[in-house]
């Protein structure tokens, strides 16, 4: 029987690790409470993509005094809570260049439970710019390869806020290769980039079968591709796809070589879409990103109603589960 919590500081960023005999979760309290690593300890495999930004980049940056401009600045990789991704509150508007505030600031944390049976840590932050408080509770039980993340958003503004919310989970590293199987929650794939370029065309014209999606981002000519596989390294580009009409709030990846799978589960009512970045080249990345938003532009989200609205004093509570599954080879 074994569960443990440990903490440390890497180049000025506080980190917290939860682990048992099977898995180890590394959370960056000093930046966004990002889940940077989720390691299957028997082989040392980390399911998440790790960016080329080194920890040393934060040595001269105190996020308590100067937060990041957006979630896209100096991203370390892993799973970021991009909240609000884009937003409108009073005369304040958050865009792709200024949004994702939850991932731009340090979070405080307290240990909720620390025993041989269960470990649990609560991370929380009061956002600048938008009057929201976010809490995330990470829990791991003895003998389990499932990490539970309970998340609460409390809005304490004095006027309504309209915003989009994405859980930006990017998988890759030594877990994803060209033969990895992508377990999708829908057979419908929306070409969000193509819609952004021609938003007046009917939405249905941008819907494609997941098994025959027209690639354009890294190719001279459109090529049909089965999104149940990652892009091959030879593609050397990226595609942004949104899956709608989900059968369930669950997606995953299966690595046939190791016989190891990873699954991510969420509340489909709150996050009716899965946003996904497919990228290849120096590394292969698959995004499994629960979200409330179908579009690349916030103006289209507002027009089509794919966003969340909170009134003063309202809150949202939701839960996620990230789990490894081992199959016999």
Architecture overview:
- The structure is a single chain.
- With 329 residues, the protein is mostly beta strands.
- The longest helix is centred in the last third of the chain and has 7 residues.
- 42% of the residues are buried.
- It has a single domain, classed as Distorted Sandwich (Beta-galactosidase, Chain A, domain 5), CATH 2.70.98.
- It is built from two helices and 27 strands.
Furnish the topology, listing elements before pairings.
Layout: E1 3-10, E2 13-20, E3 23-28, E4 34-40, E5 45-46, E6 79-82, E7 87-89, E8 92-94, E9 108-114, E10 118-126, E11 132-141, E12 146-155, E13 161-163, E14 166-171, E15 181-183, E16 188-191, H1 192-197, E17 207-209, E18 213-215, E19 223-225, E20 238-243, E21 250-255, E22 260-265, E23 273-279, E24 285-287, E25 289-291, H2 298-304, E26 308-310, E27 315-326
Antiparallel strand pairs: 1-2, 2-3, 3-4, 4-5, 6-14, 7-8, 7-13, 9-10, 10-11, 11-12, 12-27, 13-26, 14-24, 15-21, 16-17, 16-20, 18-19, 20-23, 21-22, 22-27, 23-24, 23-25
Label this structure with key terms:
single chain, 329 residues, mainly beta, Beta-galactosidase, Chain A, domain 5, 8-stranded antiparallel beta sheet, 4% helix
């Amino acid at each position: 029987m074994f569960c443990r919590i440990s903490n440390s500081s890497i180049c000025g960023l506080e980190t917290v690790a939860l682990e048992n005999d099977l898995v180890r979760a590394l959370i960056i309290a000093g930046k966004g409470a990002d889940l940077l690593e989720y390691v299957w300890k028997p082989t040392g495999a980390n399911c998440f993509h790790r960016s080329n930004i080194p920890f040393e980049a934060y040595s001269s940056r105190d996020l308590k005094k100067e937060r990041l401009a957006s979630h896209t600045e100096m991203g370390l990789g892993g799973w970021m809570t991009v909240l609000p991704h884009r937003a409108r509150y009073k005369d304040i508007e958050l865009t792709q260049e200024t949004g994702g505030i939850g991932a731009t600031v340090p979070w405080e944390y307290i240990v909720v439970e620390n025993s041989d049976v269960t470990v649990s840590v609560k991370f929380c932050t009061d956002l600048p710019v938008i009057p929201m408080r976010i809490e995330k509770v990470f829990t791991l039980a003895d003998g389990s390869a499932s990490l539970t993340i309970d998340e609460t958003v409390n809005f304490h503004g004095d006027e309504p806020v309209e915003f989009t919310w994405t859980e930006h989970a990017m998988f890759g590293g030594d877990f994803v290769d060209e033969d990895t199987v992508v377990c999708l929650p829908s057979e419908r794939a929306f070409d969000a980039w193509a819609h952004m370029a021609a938003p007046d065309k009917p939405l249905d014209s941008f819907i494609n079968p997941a098994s025959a999606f027209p690639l354009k981002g890294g190719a001279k000519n459109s090529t049909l591709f089965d999104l149940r596989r990652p892009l091959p390294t030879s593609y050397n580009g990226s595609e942004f796809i949104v899956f709608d009409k989900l059968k369930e709030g669950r997606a995953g990846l299966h690595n046939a070589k190791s016989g190891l799978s990873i699954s991510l589960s969420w509340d489909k009512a709150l996050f009716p879409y899965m946003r996904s970045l497919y990228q290849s080249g120096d590394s292969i990345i698959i995004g499994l990103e629960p979200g409330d938003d179908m579009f690349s532009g916030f103006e289209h989200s507002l027009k089509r109603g794919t966003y969340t609205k909170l009134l003063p004093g309202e809150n949202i509570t939701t839960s996620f589960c990230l789990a490894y599954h081992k199959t016999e080879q």
